[in-house]
Structure formats: structure tokens, C-alpha cells
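PROTEIN DESIGN WORKSHEET
SECTION A - STRUCTURE
LENGTH: 336
C-ALPHA CELLS:
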């Protein structure tokens, strides 16, 4: 097994933010140190977030206030990407109904379009992004505008946002309101799992081999798969061990780690599914009723072994720990 750190194989690290670097306004333990170490080693890194409630400069200020190195140029947001897409499709000065936070209004204005708030202003497009104060009145105006023929662009469709108190409704939940009212999907979804943010980051840095780091299988990891990029799932946000075991092929990461410290661990120790070491470790057997986990080792290695069993073709099954170490590992992973 090579002892070289995982990050050595890549020329750019692209981080998701919510659930990877911070939870709402609190840095995740180890995140500050991990990003600072990358910067100290002279490695290139960027941030790609589906959260459309802040502009790039505001995100950079938030990060630096937490002690995480960041500049506005390093931050790619779904709000900025959505505004750019609209500017490419619409004439300058076109009215766009904005449903979201002030940051999304500012991004639309910055590309030469005119943000409006009512369907009576004849918007030619509706752009919908997360905003903690979005309510029925804004959604009603958007519904009327789309029914009248406006282009409907969603910055992203994350169903939830991670928080210290647990998952909260995300923009996908708000999009679902209009989807139900209108009986159709948005015309365009800009953010992850669409690969645009990742490809834009690679282009910006001239990177040939980026690594995507995220906490969500349905956005970060699926987006990396669609972009043809390797990815690292960290277990500090939305997707947990049970989600990983049950992940379909299009949502399977290259590596899994407990947190961002995994960037500096050997790649073979994080690759998923994991290979059983020659000297022993974890063993997963099928007794016809469920899986039996036996052996000893790190809980993360047990998770990798369970992924190997699940991803070999059969469906995920109930798992029982045989040894005391196995039962402890399953408890730590939340699989007991």
C-alpha cells in the first residue's frame, strides 16, 4: 500500500461547503486545519456550493472569518452560475423574477438583467434559489410567471441543508412547491449534480485532475460522477454510512473518509469499496438472511467492506456484528 497522501494524486481540490467546511455558521472540526494545510503546501483548491443565499465575496468573507483560507475567486456559487446562464440566454435589461435571497438578486443585476418581484412586471424568466425568508407570496408570483411562459431556472434542487440541529428544508423543497403547483420540472437546474460548477472550477485553475470533496451523494458525488471526476465523501454532513452502502452506481464516490483529514491519508486506505487485507481485517458473509460482519479493525474499513458486499451485485441487507469489535464498529457507524 502506498503511503503517499490521497491529495498527492490531484492538482485541484474542489470543496463543497455546507456539511464539508461548515454547518450554517460553524466550522466543522478539522476543516480549518485541513484547508490551511493545503494552502501551506501550495496546493490549489476551490469551493463549489449549491447554496444561492450568498455571493462569492460574501462566502469568502464568511470562510475567512472562520479561519478558513478563501478569496472570492476561489468560490463558485449556483447563484452566480444561474445569473451567467440567464445572461447568455436573455437580452441585456430583460426582467427576471427572482425567488431567493438578496444575493441572487445582486447576481442577476450584476450581469445586466433587471430583477423583479411580481408576475405583473412581465418577467421573461424566473430564477429560484434558496432564501431563508422565501414564502408563499414569492412562490405564487413565480407560479403565475411560469404559467405565462417565463423560463424557469432553479439554482439547485437540494432537498435539505445540513445544520447543527439536523437537516433543514433546502431549495429543492421550495422547488417542489412549484413543481406540485405547475405539474412540471424546472426548465434548467444549474447546480450540482449538474457538472457545471466542477468543470468551471477545473477550467479556472487549468486543472487536469481535480478531486471533488462533498458530503452528499445526490449532489456532490453524483455531480463528480457525471463530470468524470474522482470524489471523496466525508461523513460530516448529510449522507451517512447506510446511504453509502445503498448508493447506486451513479452516486458512488472513489473514496470515503470520516472528515477532511482523509485528504492526507493513503489513498488505498480510503478507496471504496475496500479490499480485504491479506492479514485479515473485516469479513462480510451472507447467511441467507442478512450479512454478518466479523473481525476487527477501524470502523471506516468495516464500512468499506460492507460497500464491497453491497456493490458486488446484491441488494443492501441487514447486518449483524459477530465479534465484539464488529458490534462496536456498527454502533459507531450508526448501522446497529
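SECTION B - SEQUENCE
RESIDUE ASSIGNMENT:
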Amino acid at each position: 500500500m502506498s503511503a503517499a497522501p490521497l491529495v498527492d494524486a490531484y492538482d485541484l481540490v474542489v470543496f463543497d461547503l455546507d456539511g464539508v467546511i461548515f454547518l450554517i455558521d460553524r466550522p466543522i472540526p478539522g476543516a480549518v486545519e485541513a484547508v490551511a494545510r493545503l494552502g501551506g503546501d501550495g496546493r490549489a483548491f476551490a469551493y463549489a456550493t449549491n447554496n444561492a443565499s450568498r455571493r462569492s465575496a460574501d462566502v469568502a468573507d464568511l470562510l475567512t472569518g472562520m479561519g478558513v483560507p478563501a478569496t472570492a475567486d476561489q468560490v463558485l456559487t449556483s447563484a452566480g452560475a444561474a445569473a451567467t446562464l440567464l445572461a447568455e440566454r436573455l437580452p441585456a435589461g430583460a426582467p427576471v423574477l427572482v425567488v431567493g435571497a438578496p444575493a441572487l438578486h445582486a447576481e442577476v443585476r450584476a450581469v445586466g438583467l433587471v430583477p423583479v418581484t411580481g408576475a405583473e412586471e412581465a418577467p421573461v424568466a424566473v430564477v429560484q434559489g434558496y432564501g431563508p425568508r422565501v414564502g408563499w407570496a414569492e412562490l405564487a408570483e413565480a407560479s403565475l410567471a411560469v404559467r405565462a411562459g417565463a423560463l424557469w431556472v432553479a439554482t439547485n434542487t437540494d432537498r435539505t441543508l445540513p445544520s447543527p440541529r439536523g437537516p433543514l428544508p433546502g431549495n429543492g423543497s421550495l422547488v417542489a412547491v412549484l413543481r406540485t403547483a405547475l405539474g412540471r420540472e424546472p426548465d434548467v437546474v444549474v447546480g450540482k449534480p449538474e457538472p457545471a460548477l466542477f468543470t468551471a472550477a477545473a477550467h479556472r485553475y487549468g486543472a487536469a485532475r481535480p478531486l471533488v470533496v462533498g458530503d452528499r451523494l445526490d449532489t456532490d458525488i453524483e455531480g463528480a460522477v457525471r463530470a468524470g471526476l474522482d470524489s471523496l465523501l466525508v461523513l460530516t454532513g448529510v449522507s451517512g454510512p447506510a446511504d453509502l452502502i445503498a448508493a447506486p452506481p451513479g452516486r458512488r464516490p472513489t473514496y470515503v473518509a470520516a472528515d477532511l483529514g482523509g485528504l492526507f491519508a493513503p489513498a488505498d486506505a480510503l478507496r471504496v469499496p475496500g479490499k480485504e487485507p491479506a492479514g485479515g481485517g473485516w469479513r462480510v458473509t451472507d447467511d441467507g438472511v442478512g450479512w454478518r460482519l466479523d473481525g476487527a479493525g477501524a470502523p471506516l474499513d468495516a464500512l468499506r467492506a460492507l460497500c464491497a458486499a453491497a456493490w458486488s451485485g446484491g441488494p443492501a441487507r441487514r447486518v449483524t456484528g459477530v465479534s465484539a469489535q464488529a458490534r462496536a464498529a456498527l454502533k459507531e457507524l450508526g448501522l446497529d
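SECTION C - NOTES
Residues 6-50+193-269 form a domain with the Rossmann fold fold (CATH 3.40.50.1000).
The longest helix spans residues 78-89.
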